């Protein structure tokens, strides 16, 4: 795909979103594209093919040319550029690191193993895609939280906080290393992580808390869950399995008492 063809498609996509080109109307012909954009005929036909591939254009029955499809406005509005190569490589690295940390533990991560699992990346090129170990761990935590967005608001503020806290608890139990890598307050915290505290703060604002108070209480809930997970994560793996039920009971007790305190305020 030539970049110029993509530019032509982007211009026409924008005109569809703006309503300048409506469903059923004719799109520019190859001749009009070559004249209007200064493109070669081959580039014009490439742009027309891309419009069809995206679902923005369809051939006219018993006619010549392309028309805007009925779905084109919605398709054009929802369009997003494909991820850059660097983003794809970084995603492979993060996925590989999460899988290895789940299997072997955070302390046993190595560039060699991550590179092999990520599709044969050479360890010497690793920091071309990820700045350092700290950024990798932030990305790993963000990837886990991205797969577990906050539940949709429903019920009382307390019910919302309980669902959110239990979701985080399940994440920590599934990924024993997660509690050591996640941060809800660091400047570089993943937006997927802070989305959880934002959801808790919204529930607390609905209760009548001020924005500042809601933010503090939301952080208290997240810190309680993470603290319980850290205490469990620090145990020997065999002891961790043996103490799973006790840890669950301690977490539930701590969460209930914390929310009881919120209600009394």
From TrEMBL:
Q: Does the keyword Transcription apply?
A: yes
The residues covered by the HTH gntR-type domain are 2-71
- Note the SMART domains from the entry: HTH_GNTR
Question: Would you say which domain of life the source belongs to?
Answer: Bacteria
Q: Among its keywords, does the record have NAD?
A: no
> From what organism does this protein derive?
Dactylosporangium matsuzakiense
GO MF: DNA binding; DNA-binding transcription factor activity
Matching SUPFAM superfamilies, A to Z?
Answer: Homeodomain-like (SSF46689), Tetracyclin repressor-like, C-terminal domain (SSF48498), Winged helix' DNA-binding domain (SSF46785)
InterPro entries assigned: Homeodomain-like_sf, Repressor_TetR_C, Tet_transcr_reg_TetR-rel_C_sf, Tscrpt_reg_HTH_GntR, WH-like_DNA-bd_sf, WH_DNA-bd_sf
User: Keywords in UniProt for this one?
Assistant: DNA-binding, Transcription, Transcription regulation
Q: What GO terms in the biological process aspect are recorded for it? A: negative regulation of DNA-templated transcription
Protein name (Swiss-Prot/TrEMBL): HTH gntR-type domain-containing protein
């Amino acid at each position: 795909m030539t970049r110029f063809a993509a530019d032509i498609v982007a211009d026409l996509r924008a005109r569809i979103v703006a309503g300048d080109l409506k469903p059923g109307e004719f799109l520019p012909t190859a001749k009009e594209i070559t004249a209007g954009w200064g493109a070669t005929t081959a580039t014009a036909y490439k742009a027309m093919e891309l419009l069809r591939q995206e679902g923005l254009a369809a051939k006219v029955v018993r006619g010549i040319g392309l028309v805007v499809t009925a779905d084109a406005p919605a398709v054009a509005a929802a369009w997003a550029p494909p991820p850059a190569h660097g983003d794809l490589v970084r995603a492979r690295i993060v996925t590989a690191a999460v899988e290895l940390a789940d299997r072997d533990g955070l302390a046993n991560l190595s560039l060699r193993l991550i590179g092999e699992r990520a599709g044969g990346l050479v360890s010497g090129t690793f920091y071309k895609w990820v700045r350092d170990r700290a950024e990798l761990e932030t990305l790993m935590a963000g990837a886990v939280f991205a797969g577990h967005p906050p539940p949709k608001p429903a019920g009382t503020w307390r019910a919302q906080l309980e669902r959110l806290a239990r979701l985080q608890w399940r994440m920590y139990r599934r990924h024993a290393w997660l509690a050591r890598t996640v941060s809800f307050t660091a400047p570089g915290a993943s937006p997927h992580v802070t989305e959880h505290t934002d959801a808790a703060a919204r529930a607390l604002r609905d209760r009548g808390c001020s924005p500042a108070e809601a933010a503090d209480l939301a952080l208290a809930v997240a810190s309680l869950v993470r603290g319980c997970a850290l205490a469990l994560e620090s145990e020997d793996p065999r002891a961790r399995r043996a103490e799973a039920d006790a840890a669950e009971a301690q977490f539930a007790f701590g969460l209930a008492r914390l929310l009881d305190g919120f209600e009394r305020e």
